[in-house]
Amino acid sequence: MTISYTFTRELRLLTPAQFKSVFSKPIKASSAEITLLAIPNTEQHPRIGLTVAKRFVKKAHQRNRIKRIIRDNFRLHQHELPAIDIVVLVRNGVVEMENAELHKLVEKLWRKLNRRYNG
User: Fold this and answer.
1) Second label for 35, Cα 20 to 30 Å away, from 5, 47, 89, 91?
2) Are residues 114 and 54 in contact, defined by beta-carbon separation less than 8 angstroms?
3) Is 5 helix (H, G, I), strand (E, B) or coil?
4) Using CA atoms, how far apart are residues 28 and 36, in angstroms rounded to an integer?
């Protein structure tokens, strides 16, 4: 069996109801810049939803860069995560981070979330 590193529609939270369900009693993993909220899902794979507020990241190209990096990191680490729905909340300070720095932070948060879910 080969592992697929694609990021398909099935790996995303799409509806407001899916997002809202994550906010009720979530498992949290956070840093100063990013918070991950997660709940178990009924799928066989993790799903992700991203929220990058204009209040914290003013310019569209900056919001897109942040979302692209987080999505790519999720795509590469999806097989290490349990079957959970994850909402990523981006806060102030993430704009100043370099791409590599953001990748490392998100990887650290995936591990933290995994430990909290399994532990």
Assistant:
1) 5
2) no
3) coil
4) 6
| Per-residue burial over 78-111, b = 16 or more CB atoms within 10 Å of its CB, e = otherwise | beebeebbbbbbbbeebbebeeeebbebbeebbe
How far is the C-alpha of 69 from the C-alpha of 100, rounded, in Å? 9
**Which amino acid is present at 16?**
P
Angstrom CA distances, 73 to 55, 58, 102, stand at: 24, 23, 10
- Below-50 pLDDT ranges, the chain: none
Reference 85, options 96, 72, 74, 100; nearest CA is 74
Q: List the Cα angle 35/58/38 in 5-degree steps.
A: 15
Tokens 């209040």 belong to 55
Token digits of residue 112: 């933290």
pTM reported for the whole predicted model: 0.91
User: Domains in the chain, start-ordered, CATH in brackets?
Assistant: 10-118 (3.30.230.10)
